[in-house]
Amino acid sequence: MNLSLNNPTSNLMSDEAIRLKEIYQQMEVDGLILTFIGGSISLKTTSEDLFGHPVESLLIQDTSKASPVLARLEVLRSLAELQNPSKAEFERELSASRLNSESSLPNETSLLHACIANRAAVLITCVPIMAMGSIVNWREKINAVFGPEVVAFDYAECGVKFYSDLMKATQTQSINGLYLRFRGLLILADNLDRLAKQASVRAQQALKAIGEIQSASKARIVTPQPIRVKIAKYRQELSKTVGQRLLVCQLENIPADTAGKIGACSVRQANVLAYELPDLPQPEPEIGTIIHAQNASELEYRVKLTKSAFEIQSAASRLGPLELLPIKHLSFAEIGIMPNDVFKGEVALVTGAAAGIGKACVESLLIRGAAVIALDIKSEIIDLFDTPAYLGMECDLTNEAVTLECFEKGVRAFGGLDMLVLNAGIFPASCNLDAMTMEYWRRVMEINLDVNVTLLRESYPLLKCAPGYGRVVINASRNVPAPGPGAAAYSASKSALTQLGRVAALEWSPSHIRVNILHPHAVFDTGIWTDEVIKSRASKYKLTVDQYKTNNLLGVELSSHDIGELVAEMLGPVFSKTTGAQIPIDGGSDRVI
């Protein structure tokens, strides 16, 4: 393969690079590589520098890297031979080894692949492979299953000669695999296709030795009792002990002692999993296993790692007595995951979140680091945002049982509730009082008022447990201070909702929960404002569409984003000493002022 540095993208878009990534992705799909434990695939090839001189290079796809690494093979091997280099020097040389400006930075995994003699290699980390390293007589088991063609190394005890030992072992023609305890099985070959076939064969050998693996989802039957308040109280106590707000996730199907028995995971990953500080409060038995983290991404990582660890432990127990290594407890700073988001470690619930103002509120909260539970009657709510910080659930708020079930799922996923945004509502077609049926009236009241009684009632015990005190923002309407003809039911429902919020502010202040109300008007990028409706309203007032959209004292047009940003600020520290307030956001209305 001829790689030219004159075209910085060609190196990473070559046929071999594309094939490398395809094989890696298929292995992930087949379960040969567990993303949250690690895995990688590499190919040694030849590049050309700017002077046309050939350069031996390493192309590698790593679990943690979005794009492949393309680096000078000679530099990586030289770095592997260094003894006790400074961190700054090591990282500088790693960065300088890149042959492509768009390449990911090489890392320790790159050194591992660089120091083997074979042209192609893949590190597989499926459950059966990882389980084999957790038993007492692991070396004997590796030899019995894979034969003498696989050499075993204790990755946890590797010293400065580790990389040179790898090179010597792989220079032996009869060796086609290296078992790195707590790291995975490194398969060796002379081309990518043969590598993929060999990896599949080795994984099947390991699976055959263990038999059927118990998955976390089949571990035990869960008692479906509501425990959301107990989880929220535990999160409150945990956050107080650690000294910062945390998210927690309740794992229904994982035995409570799994987090302390991670022998089969890589040493680094196990440390990340169990960095809890000593003497943390223990959850009540019915809560089961709790995983905690500073933000949703870290929480997702640790949850998936714990589930993998349970399956590995379960599989290893079929092979013989377990040998579980002691796990070092790391502080938050040692892990290096220290985002500085205003809502880091906090949970918000937003209703009517599938579009318009509700969706904008979710976006503003996610940007500020919150984990968000989003409810809407529309099914698209489920996949609205692709982030571990988002949990969207289809929910008919008029069905109280379904609403309570969503509360339970949300708290089990993130650990509690810090912020509540009551946004769901309807704006029905205009109807004068003399034509209004009770069915029409009740429908508006049910959605705009009644469901919020349930939401406030069920949120209160959770908001009381919020480590940084609970907060509520209610999306009412300018129709509260300035009602219009044909909107009696809507105006009355929003007025009653406002009164409900004011009473909540009075009743909940002893628990340091603040409740504030928002009165938006004429937010035209929401579902109720279709082009036809806007044209009709503009014509009624003898205005153009643009004039109608800016028909306020400031002459500005409002958007859902504007409302979402204000909601987020009202939930944040700027409003920390305000409760019971009613805030207009309407560009200025002479009818209100």
Q: What's the oligomerization state?
A: single chain
Q: What share of residues is helical?
A: 25-40%
Low-confidence stretches: 1-10, 216-223, 259-278, 326-340
Average pLDDT score = 85
Written description of the protein model:
This protein has 593 residues and is an alpha/beta fold. 39% of the residues lie in helices and 15% in strands. It has helices at residues 15-29, 73-81, 87-96, 108-114, 127-131, 138-146, 162-170, 192-210, 228-242, 267-273, 296-316, 332-335, 356-367, 400-414, 438-463, 488-508, 531-540, 545-549, 560-571, and strands at 3-4, 40-48, 54-62, 69-72, 120-124, 150-153, 177-180, 184-189, 247-251, 289-293, 347-351, 371-376, 390-394, 419-422, 471-475, 514-520, 582-585. The strands form 3 sheets. Strands 1, 2, 3, 4, 5, 6, 7 and 8 form an 8-stranded mixed β-sheet that branches. It has a 7-stranded parallel β-sheet with strand order 13-12-11-14-15-16-17, sandwiched between helices.
Brief account:
This protein is α/β, with parallel strands linked by helices and 593 residues long. The protein has helices spanning 15-29, 73-81, 87-96, 108-114, 127-131, 138-146, 162-170, 192-210, 228-242, 267-273, 296-316, 332-335, 356-367, 400-414, 438-463, 488-508, 531-540, 545-549, 560-571; strands at 3-4, 40-48, 54-62, 69-72, 120-124, 150-153, 177-180, 184-189, 247-251, 289-293, 347-351, 371-376, 390-394, 419-422, 471-475, 514-520, 582-585.
